Amino acid sequence: MGLPEGERDGRLDGKVAILTGAAGGIGRAVVRRYVAEGAKVVAVDVADTVHRLGDELGDSVLPMVADVRSWEDNQAVAAAARERWGRIDVFVGNAGITDAARPLEEIPGPQLTPAFEELFGVNVLALMLGVRASLDDLIAARGSIILTGSFAGANAAGGGVLYTASKHAVLGLVRQLAYELAPDVRVNGVAPGVAPTRLRGTAALGQGASDSVLDGTRAALPLQEVPDPEAYSGVFALLASADGEAMTGSMLTADSGLSIRGIARPGGRVRRPADG
Question: What stretches pass through the bilayer (predicted)?
Fold first, then answer.
């Protein structure tokens, strides 16, 4: 569960954040949590449904429709944050697309290059563009960068070949940027497992949006529950706040125990149907 409605501790008071992939799922939940904690947020998404956040949260949110793969759009987002609130303290690179777990052998050769460019453009290049556009402000504020990774960033079978490779790249970005920007900017990531949301697919592979939770997922998780998107918001709030000031270069795993799942059963105390 996220922060209860109307409750906040103000640990992000005065901070200005840019958050991409804000229109739904974890991104939307983090925007709501940041506002509840006192932050102002530029909420960015390619979908115009991002404007609903402005309707819901009022003047604390500036919704913007943008293509995160565009340098010009990232510049415009950073400029909007400066114009509205005069600073940028936090950049959250959360936008991402999936390959619907497509294996390499099922991707026709002529489609591989455009699919790679599309997926890596959103999942990797966009993170670098967003950070670069906000970098001077983040250094001046001694701010924080948070990138959304994945269970697939350290494991196989969390996606297809393109998605898994892209999320491994995000882990590399977190570590390299943490080194390059220390001591002025902290850089960390969050690696979710599953959340009930719809992910946009890779158009070059003919994919539309699809549900991120497959049948049987709940039973496969050691914690035996599929978390709501709000369950992840506190981790993002921690990393943006003074409570995370000793952390940089870390990828925090929030995968409901998926990476420690057992072979015989998902968790040591999980009862199997045959156990009665």
Answer: none
Structural domain boundaries, residue 152: 16-257
Question: Among this protein's residues, is 163 annotated catalytic?
Answer: yes
pLDDT digits (tens, 9 = 90+) for 131-166: 999 999 999 999 999 999 999 999 998 899 999 999
Select which of 34, 163, 179, 232 is catalytic: 163
Query: Residue 5 pLDDT > 70, yes or no?
Result: no
- Phi, psi (degrees; rounded to nearest 5) at 247: -115, 125
85-131: pLDDT as tens digits: 999 999 999 999 999 999 999 999 999 999 999 999 999 999 999 99
Q: Which of 23, 64, 25 is nearest to 42 (CA)?
A: 64
CA atoms within 13 A on the CB side of 12: 31
Tally of domains in the chain: 1
- CATH code of the domain in which 34 resides: 3.40.50.720
Q: Is residue 78 part of a domain?
A: yes
Percent of the chain with pLDDT over 70: 93
The proportion of the chain whose per-residue pLDDT surpasses 90, expressed as a percent, equals: 78
